[in-house]
Amino acid sequence: MDPLDTTNNKALEVKTNLNSNETVNTDKRSDESQISKIDRKTKPELSSTTSGRNNIDLSSKANKSDVIQSKIQLKKENSKFYWRVTRYFLETYLVMIILFLIIMSIFWGSLYKRTRYYKNLHYLVVLDEGEITTPLVSEVFIKVFNSSQVQNVLGTFNFVNITEFTELSLKKQHTNYEELTEQIHQLNYWGGFYVPPNATLDYFQALQIANSSFNPNELIKFIFETGRDPLTIPSYVLPIIEGIEGNFVEYAQQYITLNLLETLSSTESINLVEKAPNLLSAFWFQYVDRRPNDFGPIIIAITALGLLYADVMSFHQYNFASSIHDTIIKKIKPKQYLIYHILVGQIAYFIMSLIFCLMILAFQVPLTKTFGKSGFLVTWSIVYLTMAALGIVNEHVSLQIFARYKPVIGFWVSGFMVINYTVISSSILLMNRFYRYGYATPMYNGYQLLNVVFFDTYKGFMGRHIGILIAWIVVGNLLLPLTLKNVAYHKKRIEQKAKKALTIIEEKKLKNH
């Protein structure tokens, strides 16, 4: 082979090798460029997925925090709500307890340590025996009733100067006994004791001759009038006097009967035991009731409890008509409404008082004892005035309560009943001075007037009682425009506050949206 050919062949091999290497390198470069392009394309996709995951994690964390905050907010709102409810109940019960204590205290307080007020009950004592050698009955009477256990403890017993009292009786052309009964009838005293002239001498003569027809228990008289106060007389006055009577009889038998028996001869003593033993148990009081309760317990249902019903009905007169009043007030002028309001109330009291009196007749309780055939009209007038006086007070207070705090209306009804009934449940003189307010209450004055109608008690104070009732009615109706204006003003203020609250709530809603 030619050497040139061999060299040429080697040169060709080298060249071919170089060319192949270049192609390989170029292929590698192209592959690398391809890979780099793929990397560039895939890198943003990877970064976007990682950022998405991060966003998902952040949003989930935000949602969890929102849930926690909403739960905390809900708990706060619930705790506020429960606290408001608890506070409402506490305030409600506090108001109830205070009102309940006030109502109970008024009635229970009138009964508290009542015995200390027995001294306010005054009695007149007329010892008309005169100047005799041994007025034993009068002496014993003075010893018993002036003792520290009786005088100014169980009552105040006023012993008259018999000379002055006789002069007073003669001026009025009365006997001493008649003057005593007149003093009691005029309500100057709750009762009176009368020892007649020659009481001891008459008793001694009856012992001497054994006079069985002589009644020693008629010597000492206790005069009173149940009609003055049908609740106080049987419950307090009579039990007090009966208690003193027992002590007096025991004392009198020792110091009167035994002393007089010692002056009798043996024959007179034997005749006394055989013919008139009743003379030995002497000196019980003779009770003279000049205005007895002939009606029985029903009179209490009419005069005392009946006025309680009148009070309740006077309240319901307004309560039942309140919805009608609210409708009419929108359709007529204020002056017209005021006239309408007053007239409707008075007509209601007029009709209800008539029904009250018809019920009295239905139970066959006579109304003619004091005023004859006019008794029905007089009773009707008294009940009407009492109901109207009670009603105007109920109306004023009810208007204010319904406008401000309705739940206490029941306490007002029961409280006003207690305020009025307490002062007629017994004499005001047997209560603390605080209860002197009762002299001005409608129920007390109506009660006193009804006692005059049914028992023919002293009429001298009728004008005062009627005047007080009329004063309640007139003043109450004159003040009614002020109460109506005040209630209307209060309602407007509440409406304005409610409108402001609504606007604030709506503004908050708009801001949230």
Automatic annotation (TrEMBL):
<feature type="compositionally biased region" description="Basic and acidic residues">
    <location>
        <begin position="25"/>
        <end position="44"/>
    </location>
</feature>
<dbReference type="Pfam" id="PF12051">
    <property type="entry name" value="DUF3533"/>
</dbReference>
<keyword id="KW-0472">Membrane</keyword>
<dbReference type="InterPro" id="IPR053001">
    <property type="entry name" value="MNNG_permease-like"/>
</dbReference>
<feature type="region of interest" description="Disordered">
    <location>
        <begin position="1"/>
        <end position="58"/>
    </location>
</feature>
<feature type="domain" description="DUF3533">
    <location>
        <begin position="93"/>
        <end position="477"/>
    </location>
</feature>
<feature type="transmembrane region" description="Helical">
    <location>
        <begin position="461"/>
        <end position="484"/>
    </location>
</feature>
<feature type="transmembrane region" description="Helical">
    <location>
        <begin position="437"/>
        <end position="455"/>
    </location>
</feature>
<dbReference type="GO" id="GO:0016020">
    <property type="term" value="C:membrane"/>
</dbReference>
<feature type="transmembrane region" description="Helical">
    <location>
        <begin position="295"/>
        <end position="318"/>
    </location>
</feature>
<protein>
    <recommendedName>
        <fullName>DUF3533 domain-containing protein</fullName>
    </recommendedName>
</protein>
<keyword id="KW-1133">Transmembrane helix</keyword>
<feature type="transmembrane region" description="Helical">
    <location>
        <begin position="375"/>
        <end position="393"/>
    </location>
</feature>
<feature type="transmembrane region" description="Helical">
    <location>
        <begin position="409"/>
        <end position="430"/>
    </location>
</feature>
<feature type="transmembrane region" description="Helical">
    <location>
        <begin position="338"/>
        <end position="363"/>
    </location>
</feature>
<keyword id="KW-0812">Transmembrane</keyword>
<feature type="transmembrane region" description="Helical">
    <location>
        <begin position="93"/>
        <end position="112"/>
    </location>
</feature>
<feature type="compositionally biased region" description="Polar residues">
    <location>
        <begin position="45"/>
        <end position="58"/>
    </location>
</feature>
<dbReference type="InterPro" id="IPR022703">
    <property type="entry name" value="DUF3533"/>
</dbReference>
<feature type="compositionally biased region" description="Polar residues">
    <location>
        <begin position="1"/>
        <end position="24"/>
    </location>
</feature>
